[in-house]
Amino acid sequence: MPLSKKRSITYLLLIAAALLFAYSLRFVFHPMTENALSAIAMMTLRWAIQVTLTLLWCISIRRRILNTAIQKMLLSVGGLLLFWQVARIIKYDYVIVTGPIGRYCWYSYYIPMVLVPLIGVFVVNHIGKPEGYRSPAWMKYLFIPALFLLGVVFTNDLHQLVFTFPNGYEAYNSGYGYGFMYIPVMAWFFVLALFFVIGLLVKSRVPGSKRFQTMPLLIAIFGIGFWIVYSLGYIECDLTAVDSLIIIMLLEGAIQSGLIPSNMNYRGLFERSTIAARIVDGQGQTYYTSANAAPLEKAVMEQAQHEAVDLGDTLLHHQAIHGGHIYWQDDVKTISDLAEHLREANDTLGERYDLMKAEVELQERRLQTEEKSRLYDRIALEVAPQLNNVDALINQSREYPEKAHALLSQVCVISAYIKRRANLILLREEKAMVAARELESCLRESLDNLRLCGVITYLDCCCEGQAAVEQIVAMYDLFENVTEMLQSKLSAMMVTASYADGVLRLRIQAGCKEAVNEPLALTLEGGAVACEAQEEDLIIDAVLEEGGAKA
Q1: Which of 122, 367, 387, 529 is 20 to 30 A (C-alpha) from 349?
Q2: What is the pLDDT of residues 246-267, one digit of tens each?
């Protein structure tokens, strides 16, 4: 048998024994009551047992009930039952029955008789409802008739509508009758009590089953049977004590049957839970262990008090509690497996990334190589005549060493053009517009190399702003053609260049060593070029507007 069930049976037997002992004091020890002191001792002991049991039940309610609203209502019921019992003790055992205190103690019986059934209605309404549930607002109006009935009872000395006293209310104990208001007072008690019992039976139906919970049903049958037997006069007893006992039994039946949530059987729940945990005292002695908890060494538990301990597939955690410690294990196997899969996936992705990176770098190098090759081919194609000319001049310098200086000087002039022309090709690949001063740089370098050939040169250039690369290329090609045609005859060259408003102008004044019979045949695609011969000088004027030159 489970320990919790054994403990419940033990408590039940002790309570039953205490109640039987208290009941026996009323009859078994009656002969001893001729002594007043003994009688008072017997009465005190009997009521001390009943009041103590009720008080202990109230204390257990505070400890066991989880729902705050139901807990407060059950504590209110327990307080009213204690008040009822104390009032009964004062009236019959410790106060002269003819005194006004005794009469008002008698009237005060009806405080619990009116309010306890009403609270029972609220309890039934809260059964099965979630935490935080509040009764409907209309139910609060039930306190109005309850307070009215209590007011009628406590003012009975004035109107005698509840109890009648033929000999005066001072002699109420010698004889009294019932007024018409007694009927609604007792009807209130019995109707609400019946509603509580029926509501408890309805709420005790097991979800999904046609059967009722047996404990509330048996207690309800016992209470109804007792009232029938007592009303027929077959039994005589202390009605206050028995009514209190029946009310407590009904409420306790609802708790034991699980209708009212409580923290009973938590030990069994802890032992059967899927959480791997254990509760130990301050010395490390285990008190409670769940089914899945693994054995733990004391050193491991001490280590877990400072930080989580890795036990392989689980992590051991710790929390200090009142009187000891709780240790629980978190299953991290799934997380560990997932982390391992993630690491493997990360490694695979890393390898794929490295492979793709290498492929991209290889592709990038290949494209760069192809682009360079394309540019080299284009440069070679556009300056092919000059390259061939350079080869021819070099070969001539080898055949005629005495002319090597003059020939190599010509090579330098052509090489300067090749260099600058290649630079313009590269610029054209990147952008269509460049600084117009690029033309000045090209002309200056070519003229500097012409000096190596003994040619007097002069450059006047005013090129500002951005010019199309094709314009600069076209003008520079024109300059190179003039230079190559006259290089063996040149003695001086003056070049003037300007660029403004998208129009590029070039003027070349070439002084020759001998008279020039006719002008040079020059062309400028997209532009205009004029050549004039003046004895030993040639004057070339060229104009090219933006958009005129073609790639």
Answers
A1: 367
A2: 888 888 877 777 777 777 666 6
Q: What percent of the chain has pLDDT over 90?
A: 1
Angle value at C-alpha 148, between 143 and 153, nearest 5 degrees: 125
- Give 459's strand partners: 495
Over residues 437-482, the pLDDT tens digits come to: 888 888 888 888 888 778 888 888 888 888 888 888 888 888 888 8
Comparing CA positions, the residue from 498, 495, 502 lying closest to residue 538 is 495
Decide: 200 and 254 in contact? Cβ < 8 Å: yes
Per 3-state DSSP, the chain is made up of helix, strand and coil in percentages (nearest 5) of 60, 15, 25
- Pairing mode, strands 314-321 and 456-463: unpaired
Question: Distance between CA 267 and CA 287 in Å, rounded?
Answer: 10
pTM of the model: 0.52
Query: Which amino acid makes up residue 217?
Result: L
User: What is the distance between the alpha carbons of residues 73 and 127, in angstroms, rounded to a whole number?
Assistant: 12
Q: Say how far residue 34 (Cα) sits from the centre of its chain.
A: 77
According to DSSP, the β-strands at 456-463 and 490-500 are parallel
Nearest residue to 475 (alpha-carbon basis) of 537, 400, 424, 536: 424
Query: Which amino acid is it at 461?
Result: C
Helix, coil or strand: residue 501:
coil
CA 86 to chain centre: 56
Residue 339 CA to residue 341 CA, distance in Å, equals 5
Candidates 538, 532, 545, 474; CA nearest to 512 is 538
* Paired residues of 488 in beta bridges: none
User: Residue 486 in contact with residue 538, Cβ under 8 Å?
Assistant: yes
**Residue 223: how many CB atoms within 10 A of its CB?**
19
Question: Amino acid letter at 80?
Answer: L
Both tokens assigned to 312:
């392989």
Strands 490-500 and 503-512, sheet pairing: antiparallel
Comparing C-alpha atoms, which of 251, 256, 329, 252 is closest to residue 289?
Answer: 329
DSSP H helices, 204-282, are: 214-231, 239-256, 266-272
